[in-house]
Amino acid sequence: MSLSYSDHKISLLLLNGGVGSRLALDIPKQFHEVNGHPIMAYTLIAASKIEAISEIVLNAPEGHEARTREILDHYAGGKPATLVEAGRSRQQSVHRLVKVATNPRVLIHETARPMVTQAMFQALIDHEADNVGYFDDIHFSMCRMDQKTQTVSKNVRREKVFNIQLPQKFDRLTLAAAHKTALKKGVTFTEDAVMVHKMTDAKVHALPGDPRNIKVTTQNDLITILQLNQTDRIL
Amino acid sequence: MKTILVTGASRGIGRATTLALSEADAPFERLVLVGRASSAFEESVAEAKAAAAGKDIVAIEADLDDPEIVTDIFAQLDAQGIKLHAIVNNAGFAKPTSLNETRHEDFERSMRINVYSPFRIIQAAVVQNHPLEQILNIASTAGINGRAGWLSYSTSKAAMINMSEVLSDELKPYGIDVICLSPGRCATDLRRTLAPDEDPSTIMQPEQVAEIIKFMMSDTGKLLHSQNLVVRT
Lengths: 235, 233
Known about the structure:
Number of domains of chain B: 1
Largest sheet of chain A: 7 strands, mixed
Largest interface: A-B, 16 and 10 residues
Helix content of chain A: 25-40%
Oligomer: heterodimer
CATH architecture of chain A: Alpha-Beta Complex
Number of helices of chain A: 7
Structural class of chain B: alpha/beta
Shape of chain A: globular
Structural class of chain A: alpha/beta
Number of strands of chain A: 11
Strand content of chain B: 15-25%
CATH superfamily of chain A: Spore Coat Polysaccharide Biosynthesis Protein SpsA, Chain A
Number of domains of chain A: 1
CATH architecture of chain B: 3-Layer(aba) Sandwich
Radius of gyration of chain B: 17 Å
Distance between the termini of chain A: 43 Å
CATH superfamily of chain B: NAD(P)-binding Rossmann-like Domain
Strand content of chain A: 15-25%
CATH class of chain B: Alpha Beta
Radius of gyration of chain A: 18 Å
Number of helices of chain B: 7
Distance between the termini of chain B: 36 Å
């Protein structure tokens, strides 16, 4: 009997090395507590329930490795975790994580998105495509700007652009090849879906994103996360 | 296999709950019963086995006066490949005395059995990734309002009510429902310790509390949300 696609093991690559300078907290934001748990723990709670995730590969802000380990011990549900040194850029960090991953498929997530759910991870794992991510609609108007004159130059049709969210799923070798090529060509990307599309001939498929799955970047985002956690109780 | 663990399964509400959950219409295929080694525990286990047609009854002898025993309980569960879906923290200890007569050791024992061991059980199940859906903590109306003469018992049950409130919030990301059930006067051996002159036939019976616990575990019961559910005559 052959295994169904969902039975294959997958590695969770976690970007956890941010220092959260824009939040002006005295600790990196992933260690800041929301409803009693560090922000980082929410991702681990969602992932701990998924059997297919057989390993976690992550980084930590410099000097916070011990706290990261403590949180893993208490929230990763016994899943083995490997700490990898963060890179100088997000791209380099992902490259380092993917080199250490051992499964044929990888999930990429960032702990600064604590609203991720078990269902979001599971839908990626169950998706038949090798490379797939979440892309949310743009709910506001946008334009291009002439940088020199600081005047409006062109409209941007929002139905043609999307908010790239995490988590994403990739074939490990495809992702590794994309990073290798990008490095060789000296090009940088701020995330991996467009990188894989540009640097390989692989297709990256889209699942509809969720406006609640925000990345905590500012103080306002922290308030939003708190409120989302509170309203869950009422809705 | 849907599994529930019940502590203090030898007597009173624990024994009645065990029997109620052994019935065919209770949503569990396996019951893990925890009790101190005693003839009462053996009888309760035998009673559950006789009542449980086709259900798996697992008995674990453990004295929750030592919270460290929780490590052994979970090692035994692991060894048998048992994962918990629900927990009823029922085991309780009462020695009703006033401030003047409460021995430090008895106060500590009340906290160990009524607070620390339930804490250790819940922590172990959550951290060790058991697929928990429900936790039901048995507190007491004596934990809502302090009772003169019951210093350590009242205090420990107040702690249980508060701990349940904290856990209800903290375990939300896990999707675990935490229910705190506070029975009033109930005809158990523990009640006899607290009120030796009372006629037990005039107050709430453990079987009635057990029926409510069984209902809380049903699909309809899961719709009932309460910070602290009071059952009393």
